[in-house]
Specification:
The chain has one domain: Glycolipid transfer protein (Glycolipid transfer protein, GLTP), CATH 1.10.3520.10. It has nine helices and no strands. Helix content is about 60%, strand content about 0%. It is an all-alpha fold and about 220 residues long. The structure holds ligand LTTT4AJV. It comes from Coregonus suidteri.
Length: about 220
């Protein structure tokens, strides 16, 4: 994987992003970190194409993606091939701050947890988009999904800034166009195919974090 994050790829299509998430899971349901990170990179590219009002969100996502890439490309990269091996390696070697922020602010476990929580937002948002009508507002769907998920982990000031950015989202028709998938019917069909995959990646990761009691890493 390249050492640094490039978010300006002109060849972006949402289908490619969803294919990347599809390749995240191994046969025995391990999550490949490289594909997980690549999926997020594609999403950030998509978000960047929506305008600079989202750049503070993109910046935070890119920071976290970069931390994970650094782990993948680092001298202990072999332990970071899957999320399962990463969790085991970092916990076995006390490389995670478990109760308060300390020596390991860039552990893979806490960094991935932030993206994992955002994946739940994505799942809820895409499900709303899939079942939306021409009259539905993307800003409303986005903020409902956010309020049901990620917002619970954010400080007031972040919630405020996110809420303001949501109002700048383009309408449903433009949003579907930017996805580069085809007609609205094709977008809806693609979302129907993609959502179970995203949900499964989310659930496998969630179960792993529950089993290891690391869902609240500071
Ligand atoms: C088919 C449609 C596709 C939709 C495409 C959506 C593209 C979304 C791409 C990226 C989403 C952003 C992921 C954000 C990760 C946020 C991680 C986080 O929670 N970070 C906070 C905590 O970090 P630490 O301080 O503990 O290190 C951090 O405080 C957050 C800062 C930035 C604000 C995050 C707001 C998140 C809103 C998510 C909705 C994005 C809306 C985009 C609309 C397209």
């Amino acid at each position: 994987m390249a050492d640094s994050v490039a978010v300006e790829d002109p060849k972006f299509t949402l289908q490619e992003v969803l294919d990347t998430f599809k390749s995240c899971l191994s046969e025995n349901k391990e999550v490949f970190l490289e594909h997980y990170v690549a999926g997020w990179l594609g999403l950030v590219r998509f978000m960047n194409s929506l305008g600079s009002v989202f750049s503070f969100i993109a910046k935070d996502a890119v920071n976290k993606i970069q931390i994970l890439i650094n782990h993948l490309n680092g001298e202990n990269g072999a332990h970071y091939v899957t999320v399962q091996s990463m969790v085991k390696y970092e916990l076995d070697n006390q490389l995670v701050d478990l109760t308060k922020r300390g020596s390991f602010p860039e552990s893979g476990c806490r960094t991935l947890l932030r993206l994992h929580r955002a994946l739940r937002w994505l799942e809820l948002f895409l499900e709303r988009l899939r079942t939306s009508t021409e009259e539905s507002k993307t800003s409303v769907m986005c903020s409902e999904a956010y309020n049901e998920s990620l917002s619970q982990h954010h400080a007031w000031i972040i919630r405020k800034a996110a809420g303001t950015a949501f109002w700048a989202l383009p309408g449903r028709a433009t949003f579907f166009d930017v996805m580069n998938v085809g007609t609205p019917e094709q977008v809806v069909a693609m979302l129907g195919d993609a959502l179970p995959l995203i949900s499964e990646v989310y659930q496998v990761t969630e179960d792993l974090y529950v089993q290891n009691n690391i869902l609240d890493l500071p």
